Amino acid sequence: MASEAAASEAVTNEPQARHIVYCGVCTLPPEYCEFGGTVKKCQEWLEKHHPDMHEKLYSEEAVAATLSTLSVDAQKRAAKDSQKKEAKAAAAEAKAAEAKAQAQVLIKRVERNKRKYVTAVSGLEAHGMDLKKVAKEWGKKFATGSSVTKTASGGEEVVVQGDNSDEIFDWVVDVAGVPEDNVDCIEDKKKKAT
User: Fold this and answer.
1) pTM
2) What's the mean per-residue pLDDT of the chain?
């Protein structure tokens, strides 16, 4: 009887597993999101998915209590640092959006033999697409072989057997959401060795 009571007491004294919430934006616990560069996005995510924790961390009382523990100089530095981080994050976001808007997708139709063609597509990775998944999807869609190969310049391109340049153009514009102005179709012929 005494041993059972001791056993149940030992079970309650063991540390219990804690449920920790991680931010869906920066993958840190929400208490540490302020040290990353995406504070605004983290706050929006937390408010949407865990409103109770957002209220606990970012309510006016919680912010005022945190700031009251700091000295006047530390408060000024904290405000200046947060403004710098926000400006830096906004600039990085604008730069990424501009790079994506200017990235070109090249669709080349290369002649292999007399009537055999291969379609090579490069520039998709700049638009946030996983090349292996795209190659697999195109292989299924066009019922041909497709793969990711390295180019001479060091980049990667998706190579699809057959002349599928028109269908790939439509897919890139419709499904991937790349503007038509950023997609170029090129016909390339291999020179015969003499």
Assistant:
1) 0.54
2) 80
